[in-house]
Amino acid sequence: MLIAARNGGNQHQFTASGMLMRQILPHLAVAAILALAPTVAQAAPGNTRTVSGTATATIIRPIAIAATASLRFGVIARPSTAGTLTVSTTGAVTTTGGVTGSNAINQGALGPRAGTFRVSGEPGASFVVVLPPTATVTAPGGSMIISLFTVGALTGSPAGTLDIAVGGTLAVSAAQTPGAYSGTYQITVTYQ
Amino acid sequence: MNKILLTSAIALASATVFATPALAAPGNTATATGTATAVIVAPITITHPTTAALGFGRFTTGLGGSVIVSSAGVGSVTGEVTLVPGSTNSADSFTVAGDASRSFSIATTGGNVTSGATNMAFTTAPSATTLSLSTAGAATFTVGGTLTVSGTAPAGSYTGSYTATVTYN
Q: What is the 3-state secondary structure (H, E, C) of chain B?
């Protein structure tokens, strides 16, 4: 119920549910009085007129995002031919090429999972998520590229928050140096 | 950027109604840093020493029976099969390399030994079906088997092959 659209590329748009109106901060209605100082006019009614205008302002909560879990591709036996391993936003694993699936071998506590973030802000507001085209994970003697980031909405509670999940595709070469690879990527959310 | 995020979070937690008109700029966007991890382990490999073989030895068939070689290389017979003096039996062996301390499974198939137009079937049994690589990433295992011998098999030297497969657990 939360995903509104995807803008292609690496921009993703979300709309939090429109519920919880009670949480929306009250409009700050300010009555503006248009005071027209009577000048010389001593004239009778009809020569001047006064109306009330309305000015409004809405203060909304700033948007914030915090990482809550790492994007993990799991433990992968080095393939004999290059391939990729994709972790979806639900944590499902698919592979191509020589990579036969990290679930095929014992993962210990390092099994694949989607990265997660909690976005906080104004209930009902929509926002755009921007992810980088690629990111790099490195280990001594090697690196791998993560591409094709995807993002999906998880739960929208408590009010004013939306947990989102990030998936991606990892490219593994046939000459990949064994080791524990790690890296970072930037995720930006902006009110729309 | 982290400071901005922190400020925002605190303000949210306290549900403060801002009195200041926060227009655009800070508060309209936020960035976080996610981490990504992956572990690549050495692929598992298996090697068959050229000198190793599952040897059922030299025997006479009688009316048939079987030759059994344990994974320790000890031979025994059933039925009328008789090992001849000087016959030796041997278990096969394999070496495995890969990720240190990782557990793996072993599976072996059966096969046939052939001489001319005659086949005799055998089954195999590895010394273990699950092992762990050493801290140096090495392991070895042996394979024994059972050869079924017919009473009509002609004399000759029979050879054949089978497949051993190791898989990370």
A: CHHHHHHHHHHHHCCCCCCCCCCCCCCCEEEEEEEEEEEEECCCEEECCCCCCCECCCEECCCEEEEEECCCCCEEEEECCEECCCCCCECEEEEEECCCCCEEEEEECCEEEEECCEEEEEEEEECCCEEECCCCCEEEEEEEEEEEEECCCCCCCCEEECCEEEEEC
d(CA B85, CA A47): 137
In the prediction, which pLDDT does A23 show? 28
Q: Is pLDDT above 80 for B97?
A: yes
Any idea which residue has 């009473």 for tokens?
B151
Q: Find, in chain A, the residue whose alpha carbon is nearest to that of B36.
A: A71
Angle, CA of B73, B77 and B79, to the nearest 5°: 165
Q: Do B21 and A57 touch (CB under 8 A)?
A: yes
List the end-to-end C-alpha distance of chain A, in Å, as a whole number. 18
User: In chain B, where are the structural domains located?
Assistant: 45-168
CA atoms within 13 A on the CB side of B71: 14
| pTM passes above 0.80 | no
CA dist., res. B89 & res. B76, Å (int)? 9
In contact, B161 and B95? CB cutoff 8 Å = no
CB contact (8 A) between residue A121 and residue B12: yes
Mean pLDDT of A1-30: 38
Q: Distance (Å, rounded) from C-alpha A29 to C-alpha A25?
A: 12
A41-72 residue pLDDT tens: 555 668 888 889 999 998 888 999 999 999 99
Query: A92 CA to chain B: closest CA distance, Å?
Result: 15
Which residues in B have their CB inside 8 Å of a CB on A? 5, 8-9, 11-12, 17-18, 20-22, 26-44, 98-99, 102-103, 167-169
Among the partner-chain residues A57, A115, A179, the one whose CB lies closest to the CB of B34 is: A115
Q: Is A102 helix (H, G, I), strand (E, B) or coil?
A: helix
Q: Which CATH class is domain B45-168?
A: mainly beta
Per domain, the residue ranges of chain A are 3-20+62-191, 25-57
Q: Residue range A139-149: average pLDDT? A: 94
